[in-house]
Structures are given as C-alpha cells and as structure tokens.
Amino acid sequence: MHYYPKVIRMALIHDFGEIYAGDFTPHDEIEVNQKYQLERQSILQVLSKLNGGSEWIALWEEYEQGETIEAQFVRQLDQLEMILQASVYEHQELANLSEFFASANQKFTAPQLKAIFETLEDLRDNWNSR
Predict the structure, then answer these.
(1) Which InterPro entries does the record associate with it (predicted)?
(2) pLDDT at 72 (0 to 100)
C-alpha cells in the first residue's frame, strides 16, 4: 500500500462510503453526522475484512476529517471534478449552475487547482457570451 503516494490512495477510496450509503447531494436533507455514520458503515463493510483494511479505513477517516494537507487537497480535487461535470452540463445547456460555481470558487486554496478553476470560469464566460 505504501508504494503509492498518500494523495492517490486517498483519492481512490474517498467515495467508498457511498457504495452502500448512496451519494448524497446538497439538496438531500440529511444531517452531517447521519451521513458520516452511513458512509462509515459502508466503509467498514467494504474494507474491514481485507488485509490492510484498517490502514484504508484510517485513510478514509483522515479524508473525512479534512485536517491534513493531503485530505484538504483531495477534497479540492473532488470539488474540481464536480466543477468539471457542472461545466459539461452548462455547455450542453442542461442547467445554469452559476451559484454552484460562485460557492465553489472559495473552496480552492491549492494554486494549481485554483488556476484550473479560473480557466474553467473563463471558458464559461466565453460560452455564455455567445
């Protein structure tokens, strides 16, 4: 497990909690702790029987807490992936997601990811000005 950088391992498993719990959106009315508990049960169900499963569970917990540099970076990557998908939806004229972009803008602290976000914003401006 240690052959791959921590960020890659964390990015690979960060959504494993959704395997049995499902993928909750901001529109779902679920308390943060309830969401965490459902996803944690899912993680335990998937990983607890594996060799080294406790290390993966600990890595998922680290991501969920979001306190380490690695966890914060992966959280921003996850946000960027959602922005990319939102860009596709807007380009296909399926939705206007301006509010989503405005709220996401404040979540990027990693300079590389902020630069990608700003490029996507420029592309949006070009698409919307046509």
Answers:
(1) HD_domain (IPR006674), YfbR/HDDC2 (IPR039356)
(2) 94
Going by C-alpha positions, the residue among 98, 111, 1 that lies closest to residue 55 is 1
Say how far apart CA 108 and CA 118 lie, in whole Å: 10
Give the integer Cα–Cα distance in Å for 99 and 40.
Answer: 30
Here the tokens at position 115 are 């630069």
The parts of the chain modelled with pLDDT lower than 70 are 1-3, 25-26, 128-130
Give 129: exposed, middle or buried? Use CB within 10 Å, 0-12, 13-18, 19+. Answer: exposed
Other C-beta atoms lying within 10 Å of the C-beta of residue 76: 20
Residue 110 DSSP label = S
Cα→Cα distances 19→42, 46, 125, Å: 6, 8, 36
Tokens of 41: 């049960």
